[in-house]
Request: fold
Amino acid sequence: MAKPKHSLDLGEQLCFSLYTAQRLVTAAYRPILDALGLTYSQYVAMLALWESAPMTMGELGTRLGLDYGTVTPLVKRLESAGLVARTRSTEDERTVHVTLTDAGVDLRARAVGIPDSIADVMALEPGEFATLKESLEHLSANVAGSA
Reply:
C-alpha cells in the first residue's frame, strides 16, 4: 500500500499554520482597532471605502470577498457608528450606495499609522513581507479557482 503524500500530523498542516498566523495577526490588530472603535472586519471595510468610496454594497462585497448577507450587517454597524451612510440608487432601488461621512473620512487620519504598527509586530524584512503577500495571494487565487 502506498504511503500517503501528506501526513495528518498537525504540525505539517498548512491550514493550521495559516489559521494560527491569521488568529495571531488579528489579535495584534485588536488593541489598535479598539482605540478607533472598529473590529477587524470593519477596518478592512473602511480601508476599501477610504480607497474607493463611494461604492455600492455589491462592489464592497466583491472587494472584500464577502457575500451581500455578510456585508449588510457590517455596513449597518459602520452606519450606526456614524462612519458611513447608505442610500438607495434612484435608477435601481435594489442598488445601495455606501459613502463615507465626515467622521468616516476623519477616522482615516487616526488610522494612518496602523500598517506600520502591525509591520513592527510582524517583524518581517520588506522582501519577506512582499514574498509572503505574493504567496498568499497566489494561494488564494489557486483555491478560488478550484472551487
Notes: The longest helix spans residues 14-34. The longest strand covers residues 84-88. The radius of gyration is 19 Å.
